[in-house]
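Reply to dn_fold:

You asked what the input looked like. This is it:
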Amino acid sequence: MYRRTAAITALVPPEAIYVSGWRALDINNGIPASRTHPRSKLCAWTASWREAILNGEIRPDALIVVAGGDCHNALADGQVAARNVPVAHFFFYPFDGDTGYLKEQLGALEGFLRGGTGEKGGHKGEKGGRHNRILSDISEAKKLGMELDRARSEGNADPERTFKTLISFSDLEGSPSGFKERVKRTLNTETRKGRQLERAKMARIALIGVPPIYRDFHRVCADAGLHVVFDELPYEFLRLGGGNIDELARSYSTYSFARPVEFRLKALKHELKKRRIDGIVHYTQFTCHHILEDGLFRQELDWPMLTVQGDLPGETPAQIRLRLEAFGELLGTHRRRGV
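and this is what came back:
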């Protein structure tokens, strides 16, 4: 069905990609499992996919570079990587949340994609019906994802497996209908496992910031007595959506990582209070501009906070493991004392 693949460097509304007849590929999602160590880098996330594209390990038909979103380094590495891709497009989020501007960006994106696919042919009714099915599949998948997110918060789903599912909402693993069925199976499997009592003894934490580059990070947290009940960025993937370009523009204009930090703080406070957390782990990436937000988060978020910084992909380093264990002991002591 989808003959061409559009690689994205950060969040791009997948609805717009799929209804244009393309398959989405979030090139960040494979980085934690990657063994490629880039020769030159600022951020290992962007440098790793840059090298993978330049070396031909990833061969997309188009590259959509996001400028002004959850990642600023992507603009520089994306321009370099674009040299080895047939065509590239630059997508901009409005810092002030201007829905009119974002609607123009979505229109330009769809025009770019439809200029290189078979969308021009076919009966209008057939295309309209197919587009509606695609949007329906994505919407239903996100509703199921919200259920899975809620189940994890209630202790009814494994944090690591839940995270691996939620992070994939950025590209729906190349198939909205197939991914919807996968989320449904994951939800049914997880809610049958029933390990609520074990997780009830653990400290409830929110993981904020960019997703960890370490593939085992959620498992390491669990081993340290920390039950992750909230992943900030994947939750954004879940909550945003729409059935037409106006709805998409209104929804994605509230993408918190593309807005001023005060906007993001307001959204965080709402979610963290709702989830009854005991503490926060703020994951930051070496040379990422989001590191600069840490001081403000510590001032504004009234929970114990541990900040960790990652660099190259792989397994969680021993030093970070020890810090997570110490944080787990601290929060466990607070819970026993009723602090």
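The chain is about 50% helix and 15% strand.
Hope that clears it up.
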